[in-house]
Write a structure and sequence with these properties.
The chain is mainly β and 163 residues long. The chain has 2 helices and 10 strands; from the N terminus they run ββββββββαββα. It has one domain: Immunoglobulin-like, CATH 2.60.40. It has helices at 130-135, 155-161; strands spanning 3-10, 15-22, 28-35, 40-47, 53-56, 81-87, 93-99, 114-118, 141-146, 148-149. Strands 1, 2, 3, 4, 6, 7, 8, 9 and 10 form a 9-stranded antiparallel sheet that branches. The longest helix is centred in the C-terminal third of the chain and has 7 residues, at 155-161.
Length: 163
């Protein structure tokens, strides 16, 4: 079974490890742990390219495999959105979601694309401005990394080494 992992680094001491695995129901299970983040809610998105030569900016636009825009996907999220990472006052956060619109193989594979944790909460396209429709008004990236094929679930060990 294909598994994927993404190690995110970025500004300040932002760090995260996110694991991806297909569950028995056909959903992609996404679990992550983060540290060194500013407190609050942060949008988490898959971006189109696995290019981080200019930090998160060179990763391109949000990856939208079905060409559906903001607010048109299940749970009132756009296809590139993986939800909200709610960070505590000590800069720690966890993520545990399951989605059906991303895959680790085939035409909608996210392997080789960039995962970006943004400074603001995604507004799900509800704000009265164009940016809300295309990006969720989530702001700059604070941590990012390229999603790659994983040999095993080593993320807990990697996270412990970086704290």
């Amino acid at each position: 079974m294909v598994k994927a992992i993404c190690v995110l680094t970025g500004y300040l001491r932002a760090f995260g490890v996110v694991r991806f695995e297909l569950n028995e129901g056909g959903y992609l299970t996404i679990k992550g742990e983060f540290s060194g983040l500013p407190p609050g809610k942060h949008g988490l998105h898959v971006h189109s390219f696995g290019d981080i030569t200019n930090d998160w900016i060179s990763a391109g636009p949000l990856y939208i495999p079905t060409n559906k825009m903001q607010g048109m996907q299940q749970d009132k999220r756009h296809a590139g959105d993986l939800g909200i990472v709610n960070t505590s006052e000590d800069g720690l956060a966890k993520l545990d979601v399951a989605v059906s619109h991303f895959h680790l193989t085939g035409i909608h594979s996210i392997i080789g694309r960039t995962l970006v944790l943004h400074q603001n909460e995604d507004d799900s396209g509800k704000a009265d401005k164009e940016e809300s429709i295309t990006t969720g008004s989530n702001g700059s990236g604070i941590a990012w990394g390229v999603i790659g094929i994983c040999q095993s679930n080593i993320s807990e060990e990697v996270l412990e080494e970086n704290n």
